[in-house]
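Protein chain data
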Amino acid sequence: MKKTPLSYQERQYRRVENSGLVSSVVKMAETDLHILSPQSVEDPALLLVSAVRAHIEQYIRAHPAFIDALVPLPMDMQAPEVVRQMLTAGLQAGVGPMAAVAGVVAEEVGRGLLARGIDEVIVENGGDLFVVRKQACTVAVYAGESPLSGKLAISLQPDQMPAGVCCSSGTIGHSLSMGSADAVVAVSPSTPLADAAATRLANEVDGKKQSINRALALAGEITGLTGAVIISGDRLGAWGDIELVRL
């Protein structure tokens, strides 16, 4: 299935309402982050992006198979921490480690900002989020042409954070997906795992009702995943400790 690409201006998932936070955009090569925090953070975030990308790129140069693997790779205890996180997420979700790259970048930048004294932060990387807030917040689910797109959101409470909220789609964007879901959202305390799990679950959805049920059953088998939402056409499925609200 051919996907619908999204330009920056068309990225509905970057719409933010009533956050009370300051918006920063940080870009480096393929990395394009939208960050919400109490103050502008472009400079420290750019340094953090540079550092995490350097670790991943250096590892890929030494291990070329890492970038193209579609199945889990063995753990490498000699790898940089950020790469070990990706390998772990791939092993847990049953996908290649690059399925966790957007999530790991979002989380590493977010945690780096927290370590610098920023007490609230949301880092969005291609629709994948690392979220730390002192108050409850809602994350709307964008699902392309589905009639359910923008009609519901996931509610996150402060005790659920830090949280990774990641989305995969078979109909929107450029990321590889073997399925046809309009949106699969995975939630976990680990953003790399949420990213990898969203990819794995989206691969299972072929547009039939049975495939949604199969994917939700699989979600329950992924250690560390706390919730999942699947939208395919006019069908919706959800699993786990997750609160959905209407918009």
Summary: The CA atoms of residues 85 and 113 lie 19 Å apart.
